[in-house]
Design brief:
CATH topology: Rossmann fold
Number of helices: 7
Strand order of the largest sheet: 2-1-3-4-7-8
Strand content: 15-25%
Distance between the termini: 13 Å
Helix content: 25-40%
CATH class: Alpha Beta
Order of helices and strands: EHEHEHEHEEHEHEH
Largest sheet: 6 strands, parallel
Shape: globular
CATH architecture: 3-Layer(aba) Sandwich
């Protein structure tokens, strides 16, 4: 089972989620892929993902941006593999400037991003990765939202794919679907 974990203010309609869904449909295994629309509260999002992991056998995660932050925590907790695409590192620090009204671009939901959100993210922050062999980092150097070098340093002991150029959406994602599946 592959579970895609979307990023901040995103959802199951994101381009990478749709690309993975299309891939699993094309190989006749749509039941082997999930992408839940996650609550905006980090603790609730982790609860949803934890329940899914516990319900399925042989789970692998793919997390993008904030979803990469969540996937890292979950991979460490459950001892499973995760592919991290332009992941957020130390999300509570990264998102500190986002306090206030937010809009989920997938669902249209409007909500207040508060200090409580940041506190929940801080509670999930790992000073360092304990099982780097379970993680595959995929970054593009042209990411306009996150500094890819933060992820390269944080995941230094994990396998890494660093693509020149690109953007936060990871333009070359579809060409790496076979790599993701074989990891």
């Amino acid at each position: 089972m592959l579970i895609y974990v979307h990023g901040f203010n995103s959802g199951s309609a994101s381009s990478k989620a749709r690309q993975l869904q299309a891939h699993f449909a094309s190989i006749g295994q749509p039941q082997e892929y999930l992408c839940p629309d996650l609550p905006h509260r980090p603790a609730q999002a982790i609860a949803v993902l934890t329940e899914l992991i516990q319900k399925h056998n042989d789970v692998k995660l793919v997390g993008s941006s904030l979803g990469g932050f969540y996937a890292t925590w979950l991979a460490e907790r459950f001892g499973i593999k995760a592919v991290l695409v332009n992941p957020a590192v130390h999300a509570h620090l990264l998102l500190a400037g986002e306090l206030g009204e937010q809009k989920n671009y997938s669902s249209g939901e409007i909500y207040q991003f508060t200090q409580q959100h940041l506190d929940e993210l801080a509670a999930l922050d790992l000073p360092r990765v304990q099982h780097p062999q379970n993680l595959l980092l995929m970054v593009e150097t042209g990411d306009e939202v996150l500094d890819y070098r933060d992820a390269v340093a944080y995941y230094a002991d994990s396998r890494q794919i660093v693509e020149p150029g690109g953007d936060h959406g990871f333009r070359s994602f579809t060409q790496y679907i076979p790599t993701i599946l074989s990891f």
